[in-house]
Amino acid sequence: MSEILIMGLLKSLISLLIVMDPLGNIPIFLGLTSGLSKAARMRVFNIAVLTGFSLLILFATLGEWVLRIFDIELYSFRIAGGALLLFLAFELLLKTETQLKAYSPEHAGAVPLGVPLLVGPGAITTTIIVLKTFGAVVAISAVTLAAIITWITLRFAAPIHEALGEVGANVVSKIMAMLLAAIAVQFILEGVREYLGKLH
């Protein structure tokens, strides 16, 4: 794998992990599964990661076809996707407390843990942009690595949360949100630059 592809893979992986935010989601995951045994909680987490991974793989393989069907240029998707990610980042930064809906813990693995907490519009947008920028190999590799890292993080969710504490987990979430905002602005600037380049 060339140096360009390796750098693309690292950039894509970091972007996906920031958007998915497995560390920041640990308090939510533990809260939704608080009534389950350790084994049952891990089954729920496995379902969540598998659901999110399957959805992102779908977009990593068919995302280009979707863009082609709707005749969407990459710069348009960059600008729209960047605006969406920026909105999500502001939402994360301004959120003061987690409001959980009355989900049944036994059925929370796919929704809302897998979708939309782990894999929402931001992760889907990032995956499609990675696909169009670096190709299917990098996109699928980044999604796979992100899913593995997320699974490992959730595997040790309880001790990680105890180590970080409520304040630490909140700080991590805010830092991730700021990084996400920076990535979103970069997406928008790249899209505008590509559009202006096409005009000239």
Please characterize this protein's 3D structure:
The protein is mostly helical. The chain has one domain (3-199): Growth Hormone, Chain: A. The protein is 84% helix and 0% strand. It contains 8 helices and no strands. The protein starts with a helix and ends with a helix.
How is this structure best summarized?
The chain is mostly helical and 200 residues long. It is built from 8 helices and no strands.
CATH hierarchy class name: Mainly Alpha
**Poorly predicted segments:** 97-102
The structure class reads: mainly alpha
Q: Give me the CATH architecture, please.
A: Up-down Bundle
Radius of gyration, in angstroms, nearest whole number: 17 Å
* CATH level 3 topology: Growth Hormone, Chain: A
Name the helix and strand elements from N-terminus to C-terminus, one letter apiece. Answer: HHHHHHHH
Q: Helix fraction?
A: over 70%
Mean pLDDT: 84
Largest sheet: none
Total tally of structural domains: 1
The total count of strands amounts to 0
Beta-strand percentage? under 5%
Treating each run of at least 4 consecutive H or I residues as one helix, how many helices? 8
Measure the end-to-end span: 34 Å
Anisotropy-based shape:
globular
Task: List strands and helices in order, with pairings.
Layout: H1 3-20, H2 22-32, H3 38-69, H4 74-94, H5 109-118, H6 121-134, H7 136-155, H8 157-199
Short descriptors:
Growth Hormone, Chain: A, 200 residues
